[in-house]
Amino acid sequence: MKIAIAAFGAVALLSTPVMAADDTPDFDKGPVWEIGQIKTVDGHFDDYMKWLSTEWKAQEEALKKAGRILDYKVFVVTDPRNGEPDILLATLYKGAAEFDRPTADEYAMQAKISGSIPKADQEQAARSSIRTVQGTVLLREITLK
Fold first, then answer.
1. Nearest to 33 by CA among 144, 145, 143, 137
2. Strand 131-144 relative to strand 27-40, pairing
3. pLDDT of 14 higher than 60
4. Looking at the domain covering 27-144, what would its CATH class be?
5. Boundaries of every domain in the chain
6. In what order do the strands lie in the sheet with 87-93?
7. Cross-strand partners of 93
8. Given pLDDT bands bounded at 50, 70 and 90, which one contains residue 4?
């Protein structure tokens, strides 16, 4: 019986992964990118770009000034395939914790930027005539060591 227990213990030790002297990962969590996928309505690309360069940019600058975001970018998809977005709106956050702010804080910031939530809602609904929001993707940037 003692031999069986000793043999089992030896097998268990041999099957355990060997830890290297430095068992830390080769990467670390970096910032988070939020990518909004936008499909403009035919003939309204320039209309939407005008909105981006005015109201959206002002909103992003206010968020940046408040320390809520680190940066933002607009990407245009060259020759999107059928059903794909033609504009990607990228917003850079320090980390995922930014998405855990209390709802009241988010509403207060939006009201500060837009004047009022009902006004912001009406303006967003009006933009549906020139674009469709197809979705949002969250990406975690990884920093390689």
1. 137
2. antiparallel
3. no
4. alpha beta
5. 27-144
6. 71-76, 87-93, 27-40, 131-144
7. 32
8. very low
